[in-house]
Amino acid sequence: MSKLFFDHLIVFEDLEGKIDAVAKNQDERDELWAIVDELVHHKALGVILDKLPGKDHKEFLEKFHQAPYDEALLDYLKEKIGENIEELLRQELGNLAYELLADFSQAKK
Amino acid sequence: MSGKLPTQTYQDIAKDVDFEYLRNKLKLKHLEAKKAFSKKYPHVEKFLAEKGIDLAKIRQHSAKIIGAGALTGTLLLSSPTQQALPTGQEIADKLKSEKEGGETKFPQKLLVDTLNKSLPQKTRPLNRQEEKYLEQVFENIIGVSAKANLEGEHLNTTYGLIGAEQHLKRYPGDTVVNHKPYLKEGIAPGLGAWGYFAPSKDKLTSSLEETERWYAVVQTLYLPDWSTRQPYLRNWYKYRKVLIVNTQNGQAVVAAIADSGPAAWTGKHFGGSPEVMEYLGGPRYKKGAVVLFFVDDPENKVPLGPVEYNRVDLPKIALREI
Questions:
Q1: Which of A94, B93, B250, B283 could covalently link to B112 via disulfide, CB atoms 3.0 to 4.6 Å apart?
Q2: B22 near A22, Cβ under 8 Å?
Q3: Residues of chain B neighbouring A49 (CB-CB closer than 8 A)
Q4: DSSP readout, A71-94?
Q5: For the purposes of burial, counting CB atoms within 10 Å of the CB of B290, is it exposed (0-12), middle (13-18) or buried (19 or more)?
Q6: Are A103 and A97 within 8 A, CB to CB?
Q7: B265/A12 Cβ within 8 A
Q8: Are strands B159-164 and B270-272 parallel, antiparallel or unpaired?
Q9: Do residues B93 and B229 touch, judged by C-beta distance below 8 A?
């Protein structure tokens, strides 16, 4: 899989159906999927960097660059941040899902 | 010509309005997020640029690393307990001796037990050694030659979660009522990644009907070389046969790849038609762990649909037990 270490915290299943309903073909569908994916990456990295002390940013980025799939990064973050980063990411990414679903509802009007 | 009556073209217009509106809205949101990120974390932006990483391509970057690790067997993901696993030959011998000895062990139980011992609880990309082992297990127990790597092609993962998909439109004008008996799953509003299966209803062969009935979805869009090796990869994957094995109960089905997906942010890695999902896990099965390998079938002899390797001669067993 094209796995990222926080993938298991994102379950935007409802959004998939909404995109399928508006996209006429695979290109349109892939385009919307990619935008959502990138929004998720920015949100996830933003949440992490907000919480992670500035002195640790470079070390984290090196680790992320070397193994973006490795869920052990969450253990590293827990240790450095001292908070339940998984729960925090789940919440923030959940909020993003709500926002996007709201955008889709407006699009159908 | 779209083939639609003038009175039906409003359907396309309505979709266009929705799509354009939504795309613009999402793009705007995306640009704002990107801008805010750059402003707040210029050092991160600089780091990523120096490494040549674009956040939009981070999945492909990850897939490349995973692919290289899987090939060399050095992937540093949590490894399952691999000690003392029987070899593929040992499994074959065990199965043979059970048959000859008249024991009543079911091959499906043997498969589930073997998968439980060899696979991690949580789905993840497997390394080459793990995949080689499963190839032997499947060939010996299920009787289907299936490969994780076929003709040099390999999916980003072969052990992941499969989710329920809707029916696909096989020809213009196809509707869900033509897909009995599985009606409640509905039909996807758009087309599969390879478009209609046939240009019209009368051109739909029984083979294409079977292809839609037993179709699978894999994440071709996230393959690291998907965009650079076209049209070869698109043709290679079209209706490519795959063996899907439910790792919880050992049910196995041969399906044809007919769509691309699911999106990475759904938490799923593969998709299955209503028929595939019903066979793998029953009527309420919506999501579950599976292993998915390419079927090595150069002569096109392996039929699509259930692999009933688990059939046993029950009357014989009953008589012997009496």
A1: B250
A2: yes
A3: 40-41, 44
A4: THHHHHHHHHH-S-HHHHHHHHHH
A5: buried
A6: no
A7: yes
A8: parallel
A9: no
Of B275, B129, B30, nearest to A100 by C-alpha is B30
Across the interface, which of A1, A20, A26 has its CB nearest the CB of B156? Answer: A1
In angstroms, the separation between the Cα of residue B26 and the nearest Cα of chain A is 7
Q: Specify the 3-state DSSP secondary structure of A99.
A: helix
3-state secondary structure of B74: coil
How are beta strands B252-260 and B215-218 bridged, if at all? Answer: parallel
Given a contact cutoff of 8 angstroms between Cβ atoms, the answer to whether A3 and B124 are in contact is yes
The bridge status of strand B270-272 relative to strand B215-218 is: antiparallel
* B117-157: pLDDT as tens digits: 999 998 988 999 999 999 999 999 999 999 999 999 999 99
DSSP, residue by residue, B77-97? SPPP--TTPPPHHHHHHHHHH
CA separation, residue B253 to residues A95, B56, B279 (Å)? 38, 35, 7
B281 contacts B288 by C-beta, under 8 angstroms: yes
d(CA A35, CA A30): 9
**Would you give the DSSP letter of residue B139?**
I
User: Is pLDDT at B100 greater than 80 in this prediction?
Assistant: no
Query: Which amino acid belongs to residue B64?
Result: K
Sign, Cα dihedral of A33, B120, B125, B300:
negative
Strand partners, B293: B243
pLDDT, tens digit, for every residue of B202-231?
A: 999 999 999 999 999 999 999 989 989 999
Rounded-to-integer distance, Cα A49 and Cα B208, Å: 50
Query: Would you give the DSSP letter of residue B41?
Result: -
What are the chain A neighbours of B59 within 8 Å (beta carbons)?
A: 2, 4, 37
Does residue B78 have a pLDDT over 80?
Answer: no
Pick from B258, B245, B277: which is nearest to B209 by CA? B258
SS3 call for B159: strand
Task: Tell me the two tokens of residue A16.
Answer: 């998939």
Kind plus residue range of the DSSP H or E element containing B14: helix B10-40
